[in-house]
Design goal:
By secondary structure, the chain is mostly beta strands. The protein is built from one helix and twelve strands, in the order E-E-E-E-E-E-E-E-E-E-E-E-H. A hairpin with a 6-residue loop joins strand 3 and strand 4.
């Protein structure tokens, strides 16, 4: 049952054979088209200095969700010369109703070094396994004068209006960019012309004013429809 009790299977679902790599930021995706379920996660480096080569993997899960099936596949790699620097992480996949693409939201750059460079990007692919194309407008969510380093998002549809989605994420509140992060929310839409998601404020940065959203219980009931 979703309410538990939960039992630890006693071992990691995924682990790299090379101890210099760590696996974090795993997320689950159920594909209603194929009726298959997947695990998506980040491979990063454990050893300092800062990361320069990170990957996002995807692999199919067995029906009971307790084992991986088949081969893992790289679906995203960081571009060291771009806004991402050495990091891509925090994957979140959706497939909006009526769209031809799977959309992979992810975070890049440095979350916690005080620079405020952390931001959210998006990529899309015609199939769940890729290949994923990064949006030309990336990052679609970045710092502004009030909030620094927005990232590690979840994206959910708005009940009653399937063209409108809510993106939940964390960010630092300036001038403190090294301590406590706040949980924020904004509204985004998928553009009718090119299909790419963008904030309805057209600012590509966190809203300064409050953004009302439906009750969380309504979101819980609606997520299964589109993701």
């Amino acid at each position: 049952a979703v309410t538990g009790p939960f039992t630890d299977i006693g071992h990691p679902l995924a682990k790299d054979s090379d101890p210099q790599y760590m696996y974090i930021d795993s997320t689950y995706f159920y594909d209603h088209t194929s009726e298959k379920q997947y695990l998506i996660w980040k491979r990063g480096t454990v050893t300092p200095p800062e990361e320069t080569d990170t990957l996002l993997f995807i692999q199919e899960l067995t029906e009971d969700g307790l084992e991986l099936r088949g081969d893992r596949k790289i679906i995203l790699r960081n571009n060291l010369s771009s806004w991402e620097f050495g990091v891509v992480e925090a994957p979140w996949i959706v497939r909006p109703s009526g769209q031809d693409y799977y959309y992979l939201f992810y975070s890049g750059a440095h979350c916690c070094d005080g620079s405020g460079s952390y931001a959210v990007g998006v990529a899309r692919a015609p199939g769940i396994m890729g290949p994923y194309e990064k949006a030309p407008s990336n990052p679609i969510l970045h710092s502004n004068g009030i909030f620094a380093g927005p990232g590690h998002c979840a994206v959910l549809p708005t009940p009653g209006d399937l063209s409108q989605w809510v993106i939940f994420y964390h960010a630092f509140i300036r001038p403190d960019v090294n301590d406590v992060r706040a949980l924020l929310q904004d509204v985004l839409r998928f553009d009718a012309k090119d299909g790419w998601p963008q904030l309805v404020t057209n600012t590509s940065s966190p809203s300064i004013e409050r953004m009302p959203v439906p009750p969380l219980s309504t979101f819980a009931a609606s997520r299964e429809i589109l993701v």
